[in-house]
């Protein structure tokens, strides 16, 4: 009995991944094994860096809040401590946005803490 390979499904599977690798450099775009490896590695990086992105943005927000707080005579640690003590529940993303784009509003928060 002849061997059955289902070439239609195999080709569809390969085409799907080769379509995802369009725009890659040289063999990474059109050689099946290289493209497959590159594509899978890319998915790994994407998964990992979705976590890293959150970490980086939190770090950026903290730096911005610290800079703005120091302009008003507080350190970041003191500022966050006083926020928690006075039960003001603003997250770091919002505080950083206020510090950058609405300095008067941030100053009002700092004055309410002092």
Task: Report on this structure.
With 114 residues, the protein is mainly α. It has a single domain (7-113), classed as Ribosomal protein L20, C-terminal domain (c-terminal domain of poly(a) binding protein, Orthogonal Bundle). 78% of the residues lie in helices and 0% in strands. The protein has six helices and no strands. The protein has helices spanning 7-20, 27-30, 32-71, 76-85, 92-101, 103-113. Helix 1 (7-20) runs parallel beside helix 3 (32-71), helix 3 (32-71) crosses helix 5 (92-101) and helix 5 crosses helix 6 (103-113). The chain is rod-shaped and about 85 Å long. It starts with 6 loop residues before the first helix and ends with a helix. 11% of the residues are buried. The model has no long low-confidence stretch (mean pLDDT 94).
What's a concise summary of this model?
The protein has 114 residues and is mainly alpha-helical.
SSE layout and pairing:
Blueprint: H1 7-20, H2 27-30, H3 32-71, H4 76-85, H5 92-101, H6 103-113
**Global structural class:** mainly alpha
Beta content: under 5%
Query: Per CATH, which architecture?
Result: Orthogonal Bundle
CATH class: Mainly Alpha
The separation of the N and C termini measures: 87 Å
- Estimated radius of gyration: 26 Å
Q: Sketch the major β-sheet.
A: none
What's the CATH H-level homologous superfamily?
Answer: Ribosomal protein L20, C-terminal domain
Mean pLDDT: 94
Please tally the β strands and state the result: 0
Task: Give the fraction of residues assigned to helices.
Answer: over 70%
Overall shape? rod-shaped
């Amino acid at each position: 009995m002849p061997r059955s390979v289902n070439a239609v499904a195999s080709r569809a599977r390969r085409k799907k991944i080769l379509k995802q690798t369009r725009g890659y450099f040289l063999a990474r775009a059109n050689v099946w094994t290289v493209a497959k490896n590159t594509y899978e590695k890319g998915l790994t990086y994407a998964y990992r860096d979705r976590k890293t992105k959150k970490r980086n943005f939190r770090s950026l927000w903290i730096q911005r809040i610290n800079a703005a707080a120091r302009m008003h005579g507080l350190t970041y640690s003191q500022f966050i401590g006083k926020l928690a003590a006075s039960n003001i529940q603003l997250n770091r993303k919002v505080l950083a946005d206020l510090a950058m784009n609405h300095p008067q509003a941030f100053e009002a928060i700092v004055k309410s803490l002092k």
